Amino acid sequence: MDTAASIAIDAMAAEIAERKRTAELNATLAQAAQDQRRAAEDARAQAAREAEAQHEAALTRHDRAVAERDQQHAAALAEWRRRVEACKAGDRAACAQ
After folding, report:
1. Strands (E), 1-97
2. Cα separation, 48 vs 42, whole angstroms
3. Gap between the Cα atoms of 67 and 47, Å rounded
4. How far is CA 49 from the centre of its chain?
5. For residue 70, how many other CB atoms are within 10 A of its CB?
6. For residues 32 and 38, what is the distance between their CA atoms, to the nearest angstrom?
7. Are 97 and 83 in contact (CB under 8 A)?
8. Which pLDDT does position 7 carry in this prediction?
9. Does residue 94 contact residue 86 with C-beta atoms inside 8 Å?
10. What is the pLDDT of residues 23-73, one digit of tens each?
11. What is the CA angle 72-87-96, rounded to 5?
């Protein structure tokens, strides 16, 4: 037969156990939320690194294309100047181009 004191002790023990389970669950949920935030931050950082790498690659391609166009332009200008000088020197075939 349970006495009032043993019933109170059992109730208190049950309440303590429930609070402990609640605290453990809250800690688990907090850890899961922290892990999720960390994973999201890592994903954003990785995406930023990839975007930066793509941007750098695009700049490199652009710089190469500009350099190539500059070389082509310089070559065309040199050829044009050569033809102008040849034309001025009397080479009428150079004038026709």
Report:
1. none
2. 10
3. 30
4. 4
5. 10
6. 10
7. yes
8. 87
9. yes
10. 999 999 999 999 999 999 999 999 999 999 999 999 999 999 999 999 999
11. 75
